[in-house]
Amino acid sequence: MIRVRGIYATALTKLLSDMGYSFSDITEVTRTRFEGELRVVEKPPKVTVKDRNDLKGIVIIGASKEAGQVTYAIVMSIPDSIGILREEGPYTSYLVRVLEPRGEYYVVELPGKRRGLLSTHRKLEPGDLVRAHVVRAASQPILREGLALFGDYVRVVEGGRHGVSRHIRDENKKIELLQLAFRYAPSSWGVRFRSAAARASLVDIAAEIQGLIEKARHIMEKQVSEPMLLSPGESVAEVYFTPVSGRFLDNIRGRHIITMPFHHLFKSLVSTEFSGRVDFTEKILKQTTCLDTEKIEESYLRVGTSKPAVTIHHIKPLGGSFVWIASPKTYGTRIILSRRVSSDGIYDGLNIPRARGDKIDSFTYLGARHVVHEYRTSENSLKGIYVNINTPLGVYDSGELWYIDLEADIVALPGKQPTIVDLEEFQKMWEEVIAQPALEKLYREYIDTALRVVNNVGLDGERISSALYMEERRIFSRLTF
């Protein structure tokens, strides 16, 4: 059973329903839109699908097997989407060994010699063995001291506090649930009631609390001297939807309800004003064919370049994301982003000196899979070209743009042959993310094509960008819709 929430709910519900999935805890809006078409089960959901905080995709969280299956199902159905699955996610509990203090954390050893960061209120010593659970899944997870177990209705956490999901709004129900926690949980344990508890009987909830506490007692009685997994938690996946993915989801949603072009792209803007405008437009529309898609696209771009200084989100799905800021100029969907360098140093990608006063012009297009950076001295002498390969450039919010960096890039310096750099990192990324197999092949072809374009065009950033834009439209037209 799946619970689906957020701006992508209608489209994702249609996709998952067509695959045979059943649903739990559906909203009245969803129930009305699908008019009895869905398989609805009155049981707690095994998997929840909801928006990322930045609205640029979704988070999938739930039981390990089911969450993995849903993640793969979604990514393999939606063109250009990229997912990262952490099978040992929130509330996964370990016995960890303390290695050393680091700031407000302790570095700890997990099973398999992996590392994590532990948060605790106690003073610990190197070599101490401590029970801990994951609070943030990552390649180096963040953990909090204490064993954690979960069921359909509650989570119990050693050393935690009692609490009730914000989705349970009935005050009388909250009081009844907290009374159960104080009655059945030992004083050193906290009980967190999940949203599914709102519809469950108190008898079933009490039984689950008692069962989890008993399970915890058995785990704590084990005599263990090495780091180990004590109890599996939930798996969590993040799936990014590029502008291409958003347009695909528009088509799916449009089968059930009037959907204007760029619906999901406008809805994914963090500022709520744009979401309201979309709702109003669709409410008064009888059909979408009367809308000028080209002008809507231009409006979408204007949102992202509406400020004198634009923030560009350079997202790395495996970690290390950052932002850079530039002054924008737009010509249709073509974008030029200009910066001045304020300090001396080294340009990382080019591995050449950086001097105060250097000029950087970056050339791209809305929806382009590249950003071509052209570096010049304050006297306008060319220092080098750096072609960043990325997912389609989209609008993050008002005065903000975004893309996912794909690691491999092209470097071109005066008097030297252009080269592809960071192919090993490109390969590593594709081994760790979830994506349609064809997508990696297309990007490999695009990288080779980008190298050929730079060789043919020469060291002219604007012409390279123009030629690349034409090539990528040809290459990625093969994405299946």
3D structure, described in words:
The chain is of the alpha+beta class and 481 residues long. It has 3 domains: 2-87 and 237-253, no CATH class; 93-233, no CATH class; 292-478, FomD barrel-like fold, CATH 2.40.380.10. The protein contains 12 helices and 26 strands. The chain has helices at 9-18, 28-34, 64-77, 171-184, 202-221, 243-253, 263-267, 272-284, 293-304, 423-432, 437-457, 461-475; strands at 2-4, 47-51, 57-62, 82-86, 93-102, 105-109, 115-119, 129-136, 142-145, 148-150, 154-158, 163-164, 189-193, 228-231, 235-240, 310-315, 322-331, 334-340, 345-347, 352-354, 359-365, 370-376, 382-390, 394-397, 400-412, 419-421. The strands form 5 sheets. Strands 16-17-18-21-22-23-25 form a 7-stranded mixed barrel. It has a 5-stranded mixed sheet with strand order 1-2-3-15-4, with helices on one face. The protein is globular, with a radius of gyration of 25 Å. The two termini are 26 Å apart.
